[in-house]
Amino acid sequence: xxxxxxxxxxxxxxxxxxxxxxxxxxxxxxxxxxxxxxxxxxxxxxxxxxxxxxxxxxxxxxxxxxxxxxxxxxxxxxxxxxxxxxxxxxxxxxxxxxxxxxxxxxxxxxxxxxxxxxxxxxxxxxxxxxxxxxxxxxxxxxxxxxxxxxxxxxxxxxxxxxxxxxxxxxxxxxxxxxxxxxxxxxxxxxxxxxxxxxxx
Length: 200
Known about the structure:
single chain; mainly alpha; globular
């Protein structure tokens, strides 16, 4: 758990660094997440931090905590600050996490280590989503991506990935030259994705 928490912290702080470069003019950009612009993605990421932080403290049952609309106004007003504050909240909450997490979006309770693993791979990928939306490179340490790939490969493929609000899209087949690209493809991303629309 200690090793996972250290890697998780690195992933979250990397996502904070890339979100810190987002301006209000960027919020209309398309993202690799179908149907979401960058503002939508950041609202989701921020709300998930808040929900997981609550779950780590034994109070994750309230679905309202997980709703992007609960943080959307603050995200649109100041995306970097809102996201950084939520990131600090989840890192603080996870530092002492034990027992089980109630994750109502998944309809079950999970051991702390499994829940941290879910959050870890989600934000390894979401950090890349933000960078890709901005057209910027995104690099994580090799040991982190190796561990994240191992966790991600536990996530099965199947029809459930095409359902509304599925956490990951269907596996994307194609060339992957490193563990990070393998991770992206397994979790429904095309490593070569680039934005097509003009955010204005």
